[in-house]
Write a structure and sequence with these properties.
The protein is an alpha+beta fold. It has one domain: Penicillin V Acylase, Chain A (4-Layer Sandwich), CATH 3.60.60. The chain is about 15% helix and about 35% strand. The longest helix is centred in the middle third of the chain and has 15 residues. It starts with a strand and ends with a strand.
């Protein structure tokens, strides 16, 4: 249950990521900077699984993970591993080719189905779909936005969110402020269908914004307490970009 979109900027891109989770899951930990193998990266953490759902590094790559509910009933590993480790496995990657090579060479059979997004400073993308068979690789563009999943009426929820996105967002070169409005939109009469959603069993728990420019990668994070549509004040962490 997540909603992701992005827009192209003159020197990079801005990405937004709504994280939706079960109300029984622990609250995520805000993003913190780290360094591994001389590559700086920043990510929030999931205290239950120990991994993350979103990570950005000093090469300007952003890596995001979404549940793939539409196929989970058809593939259930006997001893599942946390999917949240996958962005951390890719944390030092410099280009999208490394992302593709990783997912075509690693054994994914212990992982439940997922969508894995990578985006680079030129706003090129790669999307890995894992359904329990061979991973499928595509390069989603504006027509596929927003990337979104839902455990509740998935086809109807995806269709409505994309229709609302089309009405509000004109192109991939739109201003980030328009994406902020979309990702914070909440219709109390259609709450489960809203990007900022609430259901009896689950809700949007945070909104992340990653802004990549020539000089820095900035991660801005706002969490949500309870079912109210308001988000907390933003917390921002930035790391310098490495030279290409």
């Amino acid at each position: 249950m997540c909603t992701v979109s992005w827009c192209q900027q003159s020197e990079g891109y801005t990405l937004f990521f709504n994280r939706d989770e079960s109300k029984g899951r622990s609250e995520g930990l805000p993003p913190q900077p780290h360094v591994g193998d001389s590559v700086a990266y920043v990510c929030p953490r999931d205290p239950d699984g120990g991994g993350t759902w979103l990570l950005a590094n000093s090469h300007g790559l952003t890596l995001g993970l979404l549940n793939y509910y539409e196929t989970q009933g058809r593939y259930r590993p006997t001893a599942p591993l946390s999917r949240g480790r996958l962005p951390l496995d890719c944390r030092t990657f410099r280009i999208l080719d490394e992302v593709e090579n990783f997912f075509t060479s690693v054994d994914l059979s212990p992982f439940p189905p997922f969508l894995f997004l990578g985006i680079d400073p030129a706003c090129r993308t790669v999307l890995i779909r894992w359904t329990g068979k061979r991973p499928r690789i595509s390069q989603p563009g504006f027509s596929q936005l927003p990337l979104t999943t839902s455990a509740f009426q998935p086809d109807a929820v995806v269709a409505e969110r994309r229709a609302n996105f089309r009405r509000q967002i004109p192109s991939l070169e739109c201003a980030p402020e328009r994406l902020v409005q979309f990702h914070q939109s909440h219709d109390p009469d259609r709450s489960a269908f809203s990007p900022l959603m609430t259901r009896p069993d689950a809700r949007t728990v945070s909104l992340s914004q990653i802004s990549v420019s020539r000089k820095e990668t900035r991660f801005t994070y706002r969490d949500r307490r309870g079912d109210f549509p308001q988000l907390s004040d933003p917390v921002s962490v930035s790391i310098p970009r490495k030279a290409p």
